[in-house]
Amino acid sequence: MSDYARDHLVDKLLSHVARNSDDERLRELAAGIQKGEAGWEESLGASFYAEALAPKLEGFAGWYQSLSDDERAEHAAKCEDQLNEIERQAAQPDTDSPWTS
């Protein structure tokens, strides 16, 4: 995965959490990281945010463990497809831009 694809994916995930989390602390955490007000290590090291994040991570881990190997492979393939699409779009010239000729 390229840095571009990783950064794009992380930004989309942070935007989703900042808008949709049911926990105000997680919305604040995501928005702060996106705005550059705090770093990952600093934020995740703070018990205030870690306490909010722990149940979500436990829920994800439980869901993931419940998947069969085939289901895990299917989700991994979908993720890979999304990352490839991000890369493909990034490689295309912006033909709608007034600055391209």
Concise overview:
The protein is mostly helical.
How does the SSE layout of this entry go?
Blueprint: H1 3-20, H2 24-34, H3 40-45, H4 47-66, H5 69-91
Task: Describe the protein.
It is a single chain. This protein is mainly α. It has one domain (3-91). Helices cover 77% and strands 0% of the residues. It is built from five helices and no strands. It is flat, with a radius of gyration of 17 Å. The two termini are 30 Å apart. The model has no long low-confidence stretch (mean pLDDT 89).
SSE order, one letter for each helix or strand: HHHHH
| Strand-residue proportion | under 5%
List the uncertain runs: none
* Radius of gyration over all CA atoms, rounded: 17 Å
Mean pLDDT: 89
Proportion of helical residues: over 70%
Task: Give the tally of structural domains.
Answer: 1
N/C terminus separation: 30 Å
Find the structural class using helix and strand composition: mainly alpha
Number of beta strands: 0
**Number of continuous helical runs:** 5
Major sheet details: none
Shape: flat
Please tag this protein with its features.
101 residues; mainly alpha; 5 helices; 77% helix; flat
